[in-house]
Amino acid sequence: QITTLINHKDKPKRSDKTLQAIQRVGQAVNLAVGRFVTVGEAIANENHELKEEMSVACVEARRAGETIAQLTDVASLDHPESDSHITIFTDKTGVVKAARLLLSSVTKVLVLADRIVIKQIITSRNKVLATMEQLEKVSSFQEFVQIFSQFGNEMVEFAHLTGDRQNDLKDEKKKARMAASRAVLEKCTMMLLTASKTCLRHPDCESARINKDGVFHRMRLALEQVIDIVTDSRPNGENEMAPISIYSGIKEFKNKVEGLRENLYFLSKENLSTMLEVILEHTEDFTDSAYTSHEHREHILELSKQAKMELEQLVSVWMQAQNQKTKDLMEDLEVAILKTCQCMNELKREVHSAATSLAADLLKYHTDHMVLKALKITGVEGNLEAVAEYTCKLSEQKDQLVEMCRLLRHVSGTEPLEITCIHAEDTFQVTGPQIISAAETLALHPSSKIAKENLEVFCEAWESQLSDMSLLLREINDVFEGRRGEKRVYLSLPRPGKHNANLKALKPVKLDTEEQAKIAKLGLELHLLTSDVDSETEKWEDQENEVVQHGQGMSSMAYSMYLFTRGEGLLKTTQDLFHQAEIFATEGTKLASALHAFSDQVHEDDKPLLLLEAEKLISMCKQLQITAKASAQGKSATFTKVDACILKTRNVMTLLCQLLPLCFKLLRKNKAGNGCLKPAPLWKEDRIRTGTNAHTPERRVETFGIKSLENHVTNMTFLESK
């Protein structure tokens, strides 16, 4: 709205309609600033250490809003007595100054509010750590129960705060790291309960103490990682970058090689050779692995040798082309570039096949959980020799799964998936020894119910991670085959419904078999629609186009919802599904905004149809959001809500299947007619960009009005023109 005011055309004739529109915009901006400042002042009153800074920023914002309102008070300009009145027409510089002051003061308020959020998370973490120290030292059940109750409430608060923060993170790597840390804390909370109870019941048992100490240590590491992400700091100068994967190495190497077409001098041959050496060093993780098949090992070694030869040929032609740019040499260079890139693609395909085939075989082999079952049986029997035998087998299984995770990380394809592989590797590495210590404790105390329960909890964590690996493998294959692209950004949703004061409620609430059967048809229709949408988006040459990106994002989320109807995927509970439906609807609203921008680039004759479809999309997304946010009590009502969410998501996807071909047709029509699209007005682009930021997923818990503050910024920067 401010951009519209600043960019208005100074026409000598000003109609009443124009004057009234300008005045309405100025008043709307001032009102939104007023609401924004009211929330900012309330936050200042609750946080005395930042009160002075926040108050100054709020005063500046209010003053800027009032100035804009005064300068746009132009409705009375047609009266002679108002000629001396200073307005936007007589003092445009004043509007620019006021706008700059407004933006700087609003930014300052948001930064201060963000500091308060970070402080809240750190304070909450400190409370959890202090209570954990008390839990470690307790010596009686009564004292433990009292302190654990307090600990549970503090963990719930920490889970809500960090879940909200995870939603707000823009960096997908940080979001994935936060999700991994929160998953550790969630699982370890139940482990801490049973491990501590076992230790209290058997205070002289060394294996019980080791088991408990392992849980406390892992929780402390996870808590520290959350704070590192929130404060954007790493201890002891630790580098944020994990070791480079083969995929990312090949991608960067190919970009450099293909860049030679444009510029022969932008890098040295030594740089290119070093990059290839690093990639080939990482392939040794495959060739040195005891679990890589002989066939895969031989192919990887052959392709590595071929890659060196192709690079030598490329460097030779490249050096000649630098000295003498003849047509023949440039053709030879093009051939060398193509052969080098083709060889790297084949190497990438081979390591992907090696990693995923190993993972598929291992996961299939370990699905029966025979070792875990044997440990439980022999533990209850008190058979120490048999427990020792099966713990050796579990250690072997752990080594296999850790190696599998390391190899999958190389071929994961996206940074969030790479982080998920690292998290899985850590989980197997830590959980394996914890199962062993829990089994040893049970074998020493075979009649102990709490020792048996403790072993069950750790075995469940292992089984859960194996199940997650099957989904992760599917995600990695989807990325490799281009079905999901790089749009899988909703891998680890916060689970607001799972964190409450009653820790027994931590078990996920899933649809039962009968409910899944009822909803299977809808889910299948949703699956078919995602395939149709993926096919349509693949037709676009420009994969960075906003319409394509939002369409791919919606397809990815709809696919997750389809998996939920089968009892699979990363949406574990009905609450996860409802949260996903809300984000899906938000993505649809973003797409509608992108369509409005796209409509400015098409012929006037085609514009009404496109805008009509965009309005339909907005309406359907609003209906879905209302359904997803509605409360539902009881099993029957919850299932009805699930059914309604899936149905409305299907309807949106059906519309999307019609919209994408229409946009593609209009795009081609414009290119054929004009050679290029008409440039969209700059203020429109700003408005769309603002709208995209405005529609981030809503938080589940308002701690002290930060969400209200964000909503008021949205109103101030994205007021819809009537």
Overall pLDDT score:
82
Number of separate domains: 5
**Uncertain runs:** 78-83, 235-241, 485-508, 675-722
Over the alpha carbons, how many angstroms does the gyration radius reach?
Answer: 30 Å
Helix content: over 70%
Strand count: 0
**N-to-C CA distance:** 12 Å
In the CATH hierarchy, the third-tier topology of the largest domain is known as Four Helix Bundle (Hemerythrin (Met), subunit A)
Largest sheet: none
* Content of β-strand: under 5%
Description of the structure:
The protein is mainly alpha-helical. It folds into 5 domains: 1-76 and 89-113, Four Helix Bundle (Hemerythrin (Met), subunit A), CATH 1.20.120.230; 136-231, Four Helix Bundle (Hemerythrin (Met), subunit A), CATH 1.20.120.230; 246-359, Nucleotidyltransferases  domain 2 (Four Helix Bundle (Hemerythrin (Met), subunit A), Up-down Bundle), CATH 1.20.120.330; 367-481, Up-down Bundle (Four Helix Bundle (Hemerythrin (Met), subunit A)); 513-671, Four Helix Bundle (Hemerythrin (Met), subunit A) (Up-down Bundle). The protein is 76% helix and 0% strand. It has 22 helices and no strands. The longest helix has 46 residues, at 92-137. The radius of gyration is 30 Å and the shape is globular. The model is unreliable at 78-83, 235-241, 485-508 and 675-722 (pLDDT under 50).
